[in-house]
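Hello,

Our lab assistant flagged a job as stuck in the queue for most of the afternoon. It eventually completed. Since we weren't sure the result was trustworthy after the delay, we are filing this so someone can double-check. Below is the sequence as submitted and the structure that was eventually returned. Let us know if re-running is recommended.
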Amino acid sequence: MVPPSLDPVAASEPASPTAAAPEDVAAVESRLGRRPQGRFAVVVRDATGAPVVIRNEPLLDDGTPMPTRFWLVDPDLLRRIGTLEAAGGVKRAEAAVDATELAEAHRRAAAERDAAIPVEHAGPRPFGGVGGTRTGVKCLHAHYACFLATGDDPVGAWVEVQLSADETGVDHD
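-- returned structure --
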């Protein structure tokens, strides 16, 4: 379940992002602390309209493969999930989530990203699933971004529960 304060716009977006609006490029650049290296679309916004998750093209502007399709750019969520990771969240998530469901999430993520690669592209291609990972969990941020954008990532759903527990003080492990 996507938190009610966030507005997923992925369903209304085309399968492959187009050039982002200048104000979105500026907002994402400010949030990242650098200019994005490829084209993207904002697919989740907060209640104020600020970008929360972007969907990257599978290839950067210079042709470099970009395995991470959904990228979390919200500074508060980045900080909170970083704290969760630092407290052993990656290992806890991997232990808590069904391995078959996780493998399926990686397969879906790879298929969605790969479908956006131009047919005529003959160079290197992105690899792996969520965040470029082939198996297991590497980055809770990438899984949460995928969850917020698609509503369908078991690790991202686990992160959502942990973030809710952080707010309420109730541990849901």
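-- support follow-up --
The delay was a queue issue, not a problem with the job. The result is valid. The beta strands are 6-8, 40-46, 51-56, 70-72. The radius of gyration is 16 Å.
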